[in-house]
Design brief:
- The protein is of the alpha/beta class.
- It has 4 domains: about 55 residues, N-terminal domain of TfIIb (Single Sheet); about 260 residues, Rossmann fold; about 190 residues, Dimethylsulfoxide Reductase, domain 2 (3-Layer(aba) Sandwich); about 130 residues, Barwin-like endoglucanases (Beta Barrel).
- About 30% of the residues lie in helices and about 15% in strands.
- The protein is built from 25 helices and 28 strands.
- The strands form 7 sheets. Strands 5-4-18-17-16-6-7 form a 7-stranded mixed β-sheet. Strands 23-27-24-26-25-28 form a 6-stranded mixed beta barrel.
- A hairpin with an 8-residue loop joins strand 1 and strand 2.
- It is globular.
- Bound molecules: ligand MGD (2 copies), iron/sulfur cluster and molybdenum atom.
- The site of iron/sulfur cluster (SF4) has 14 residues, from helix 1 and helix 6.
- The site of molybdenum atom has 4 residues, from loops.
C-alpha cells in the first residue's frame, strides 16, 4: 500500500477546521482523517470532520453519486438518461440562448454554491451570469441564512463579516450568545466559548431552548421565540438610561445616537418583559454586565437571522457594540458566525445580486467600468433578483415580462432546504428549464431537465473562506470518478458554447484573475496561502509581511464611507404567523450535530448515518407529550397551514411546552413542508424560525412505521435506481 498525507479544509461548517488526511493512493481511498493545526481548530475536529468524508466512497445509503450528465431527451415527462458532456453542454447552452433571446437575460437566475465547489467556481459562475447571460440574477444560500447579517451590518458598520476571529472568542470577557447553537452547528467554535468560560468570561445565552451553551452559561435568557428585537432594544435602553455607554466612542465614532435614544425610550425592561417573557431584572443585569467590559463579544446565528425582522435585530445588536465602544480591538465586536463551509466565500466572490466579487456594488459606475474592462463586455447595472423570490417570479410575476423561466441550481437543494416546499415544487414544475449541477442526486434533481455532475470536495483544488474571513486551501485528495468535471469547467464549457469563451487551466489561474480585481483580496496569493496556511481579508499586498486582518474596524474606524458606525433601529413586531386555535403551537426549525443541511453528504457516511436516521425527531416538552398522550420514539403527525409530515416524538425539557423544534435534515420528516414563505423585506430571508403548527398522535403506529419504510424505499428508488421523476413527492 502506498499512502500519502495531505492537509485540507473541512467541507461542512464555516469553522474552517484543517484536517490531515491519510490517503491510500493505489486504492484511491481516504484511510483516516485527524485534526491538523489550523488557525481556528488548533488540531481538533468534531465528528463530521473525522467521519464526514465517507460519502466519497459512494456507499449509496440515501442517494447516489452522479457520474454522467443526465438529460430528459423527450421533454419533462421523459426519463433522465445518461448523455455525453457535449450533448449536455449543447442542450444547456441552446436552451439558455433561446430563453435569453425570447424573454431577455433577466428571465434566467443562477445560483452560486456555498458547499464543495470553492471560491473559484463561484467566481466563474457569477462572471458567466453577468458577462455571458447579461443579468445580475445570481444568488445563493446566504440568502436563506446570514443575508440579514450582511445587510444589517453593512448599514451599521460598512462590512457584513465577523469583526473578530474564531481564536479571539476565548479571549473575550463577556460573551452574549444570541440565537446561536454552536455546540451543534460549529462544535469547534463552541469549544472556544467553553474555553473562554474556563478563563473567566461571563457567558449570557439568549435562546428559547436550553441549548448546551445555555446550560454552561451564567445567565440563560429563555426568551419567547420571535422577541429578539424587544430584548435588544431594551438592552440599549438600559445602557442609555443608566449611562453605561462609552460617551467618547459614541461622540467620535458613531452617528444617529439621538434617534436611537428616542426609539428605545419606551423599551423599559418592564415593557420588554411583557414581549419576551423575561424577568426585567435579568434584562437590566445583562445590560450592565455587557457594558462593563471592553471585551464584550456578541455571537449570533439563525435564531437572529431567520425572522422577518432579521435585519433590524442585527442592527440592534450592532447598536450595543457601538454604545459601549466594543469594536476595533482584539477579542471584541460582533460575530455573525457564518454557517456553511464556504458561504463567506460565495459572498466574497459576488454570488449575490448586488455585488461583484469583493463587495463592489453593481450600481457603482466605477466598479462596473472596472469589471467591464476586465471581462470585455458591457455589464447590467440593475440589481438582480434574490433566490427566495423565485417562486413569486415564476408563479405570480408582477408582470409577464418579469417572469423567471430558467433556474440553474448549482450545489443547492431548494426542494429540501427552502421554506414552504409545496410552493417550491410547484415552482420547479412550472419553470421552463431547470438545470441541476450537483455531486449527488438530491430532491431538486428529480425536477431537473438536465443534471450536470461535478467533482466533489476531496477531488478538486481551490480556496474556501471560513466564517472569520480566513481564506484557506482545499486540496485534491483522490481522483474523481470517471465522467465528472470540476464545477468551474462545467460552467466554462457552457459559457464558451454560448459565445463567451472561458479557457481556464486550473483554479490558481482563476484565483489570480479575481484577486487582481478585488483590492481587499489582492495579497492572498496561492503562494502565500501555502506559506501562511490562512489569510484573513482584507489583505492588500502580496508582500509576505501582509498576513491579513484578524479583526476589523481598528480603533473604531468603520468600513462605512465616512468611517462612522451608524445607530439604526426599529420597533419590534410579532412574527408573521402566530399560534391560533387550529394550530396552537409554535414550530421552530434548527440543526443537529451529526447531520448536515440536505444530508446528501452526511446521509451517505456510514458512521454518521448510524447516529440518526429518518424520519428525524420533533423536540417536545414532556408536559406537551403528556397532554397529547405521546411518548419517546412514537411517530406523530405534525402539520401547518401549508402541509404535514411524520416524525418521531423526542420529549425534552430543553424546550418550553408551547414551542416544538425540528431539524431540517430529514426527507420524510421534512419540516419545510410546514415552514412559512414570509420574508424579511430587506434581506429576503424566510421566517424559518417561527410558524404555527399542530402535533397529533397517530393511533395506528404499525401503519405509520410502514408509511415511513415505504417513503424511505421510494426515496432510495428515485435517487439510486431509477430516474422516474414521478413519485418523488409524498405518498398519498
Ligand atoms: N427549515 C429550515 N430550513 C433551512 C434552514 C433552517 O434553519 N430551517 N436553514 C437554511 C440554511 S441557513 C441554509 S444555508 C440552507 C442550506 O441548504 P442547501 O444549500 O440546499 O443544502 P446543502 O446540504 O448545504 O447542499 C446543497 C447541495 O450541494 C451539493 N454539493 C455539495 N458539494 C458540491 C460540489 O462540490 N459541487 C456541486 N455542484 N454540488 C455540491 C450537495 O450534494 C447538495 O445537494 O438550508 C436552509 N434551510
Ligand atoms: N451539524 C450541522 N452543523 C451545521 C449545519 C447543519 O445542518 N448541521 N448547518 C450550517 C449552517 S448552513 C448554518 S447557517 C449554521 C447555523 O447555526 P445556528 O445559527 O446555530 O442555527 P440553528 O440551530 O438553526 O439556530 C440557532 C438557535 O436559534 C434558536 N432560536 C430559535 N428562535 C429564536 C428566537 O426567537 N430568539 C433567539 N434568540 N433564538 C432563537 C434555536 O433554538 C437555536 O438554538 O450551522 C451550520 N452548521
Ligand atoms: S467544526 Fe465544522 S469545520 Fe470543524 S470539523 Fe466540525 S464540521 Fe468540520
Ligand atoms: Mo446556513
Amino acid at each position: 500500500m502506498t499512502t500519502k498525507q495531505i492537509v485540507s479544509t473541512c467541507v461542512y461548517c464555516g469553522a474552517g477546521c484543517q484536517i490531515l488526511f491519510t490517503v491510500d493512493t493505489e486504492a484511491n481511498r481516504i484511510l483516516e482523517a485527524t485534526g491538523s493545526e489550523g488557525h481556528s481548530n488548533d488540531g481538533t475536529l468534531c465528528l463530521k470532520g473525522r467521519y464526514g468524508w465517507d460519502f466519497l466512497n459512494d456507499p449509496q445509503i440515501l442517494t447516489k453519486r452522479l457520474t454522467s450528465p443526465l438529460l430528459r431527451k423527450n421533454g419533462r415527462q421523459s426519463d433522465l438518461t445518461p448523455v455525453s458532456w457535449d450533448e449536455a453542454v449543447n442542450f444547456v447552452s441552446q436552451r439558455l440562448t433561446d430563453i435569453k433571446k425570447t424573454h431577455g437575460p433577466d428571465s434566467i437566475l443562477c445560483t452560486g454554491s456555498a458547499r464543495g465547489p470553492g471560491n473559484e467556481a463561484n467566481y466563474v459562475m457569477q462572471k458567466f451570469v453577468r458577462a455571458c447571460l447579461g443579468t445580475n440574477n445570481v444568488d445563493h444560500c446566504a440568502r436563506i441564512c446570514h443575508a440579514a447579517s450582511v445587510a444589517g451590518l453593512l448599514v451599521s458598520l460598512g462590512s457584513g463579516a465577523m469583526s473578530l476571529s474564531v481564536p479571539e472568542i476565548e479571549e473575550a470577557e463577556v460573551i452574549f450568545n444570541i440565537g446561536y447553537n454552536g455546540p451543534d452547528s460549529h462544535p469547534i467554535v463552541a469549544r472556544r466559548i467553553v474555553r473562554a468560560r474556563q478563563k473567566g468570561a461571563y457567558i449570557i445565552c439568549a435562546d428559547p431552548r436550553r441549548t448546551e451553551t445555555a446550560r454552561i452559561a451564567h445567565k440563560h435568557l429563555q426568551l419567547k421565540g420571535g422577541s429578539n428585537l424587544a430584548l435588544a432594544n431594551s438592552l440599549a435602553h438600559v445602557i442609555i438610561a443608566e449611562n453605561l455607554g462609552d460617551q467618547a466612542f459614541i461622540k467620535d465614532h458613531t452617528k444617529g445616537f439621538d434617534e436611537l435614544k428616542k426609539l428605545v425610550q419606551k423599551y423599559t425592561p418592564e415593557y420588554a418583559a411583557r414581549i419576551t417573557g423575561l424577568n426585567p431584572d435579568e434584562i437590566r443585569a445583562t445590560a450592565r454586565i455587557y457594558a462593563a467590559s471592553k471585551h464584550s463579544v456578541i455571537l449570533w446565528g439563525m435564531g437572529v437571522c431567520q425572522f422577518s425582522q432579521g435585519v433590524e435585530v442585527v442592527k440592534a445588536l450592532a447598536n450595543l457594540g457601538l454604545l459601549t465602544g466594543n469594536f476595533g480591538r482584539r477579542a471584541t465586536g460582533v460575530g455573525p458566525v457564518r454557517g456553511q463551509n464556504n458561504v463567506q466565500g460565495a459572498c466574497d466572490m459576488g454570488a449575490l445580486p448586488n455585488y461583484y466579487p469583493g463587495y463592489q456594488s453593481v450600481t457603482d459606475p466605477a466598479a462596473r467600468a472596472k469589471f467591464e474592462a476586465a471581462w470585455g463586455v458591457p455589464l447590467p447595472d440593475k440589481v438582480g433578483l434574490t433566490l427566495t423570490r423565485v417562486p413569486e417570479f415564476v408563479l405570480h410575476p408582477p408582470d409577464k415580462s418579469k417572469q423567471i423561466r430558467a433556474y440553474w441550481i448549482f450545489g443547492e437543494d431548494p426542494a429540501q432546504s427552502d421554506a414552504y416546499l409545496a410552493e417550491m415544487r410547484e415552482t420547479l414544475e412550472k419553470l421552463e428549464l431547470v438545470i441541476v449541477q450537483d455531486i449527488y442526486m438530491n430532491k431538486t434533481a428529480q425536477y431537473a431537465d438536465v443534471i450536470l455532475p461535478s467533482t466533489s470536495w476531496g477531488e478538486h483544488d481551490g480556496v474556501y473562506s471560513a466564517c472569520d474571513r480566513a481564506f484557506q486551501r482545499i486540496r485534491k485528495l483522490i481522483e474523481p470518478p470517471a465522467g465528472v468535471l470540476t464545477d468551474w469547467e462545467i460552467i466554462s464549457r457552457v459559457s464558451t458554447a454560448m459565445g463567451y469563451p472561458m479557457k481556464y487551466r486550473n483554479t490558481e489561474e482563476i484565483w489570480n484573475e479575481l484577486i487582481n480585481l478585488c483590492p481587499s483580496f489582492k495579497g492572498a496569493t496561492y503562494e502565500k496561502l501555502e506559506k501562511l496556511g490562512h489569510i484573513q481579508w482584507p489583505c492588500r499586498s502580496a508582500d509576505l509581511s501582509d498576513v491579513g486582518t484578524p479583526f476589523l474596524h481598528r480603533d473604531g474606524n468603520f468600513a462605512t464611507k465616512d468611517g462612522k458606525g451608524v445607530f439604526s433601529c426599529a420597533e419590534w413586531q410579532p412574527p408573521v404567523e402566530v399560534e391560533n386555535a387550529e394550530y396552537p403551537l409554535t414550530l421552530s426549525t434548527v440543526r443537529e450535530v451529526g447531520h448536515y443541511s440536505v444530508r446528501t453528504m452526511t446521509g451517505n457516511c456510514r458512521t454518521l448515518r448510524n447516529l440518526e436516521d429518518e424520519p428525524g425527531w420533533v423536540q417536545m416538552n414532556p408536559k406537551l407529550c403528556n397532554q397529547l398522550g405521546v411518548y419517546h420514539g412514537q411517530l406523530v403527525k405534525i402539520s401547518s397551514k401549508r402541509g404535514w409530515c411524520i416524525t418521531r416524538c423526542l420529549p425534552t425539557d430543553r424546550v418550553k411546552p408551547d414551542a416544538v423544534y425540528m431539524t431540517y435534515q430529514w426527507w420524510i420528516g421534512a419540516c419545510n413542508e410546514l415552514t412559512i414563505g414570509s420574508l424579511d423585506p430587506i434581506s429576503n430571508t424566510p421566517e424559518y424560525k417561527y410558524c404555527a403548527c399542530r402535533v397529533e398522535k397517530i393511533d395506528n403506529q404499525a401503519w405509520a412505521e410502514k408509511y415511513v419504510q415505504n417513503e424511505y424505499q421510494t426515496i432510495r428508488r428515485n435517487m439510486a435506481v431509477t430516474f422516474d421523476r414521478k413519485g418523488g413527492g409524498k405518498a398519498a
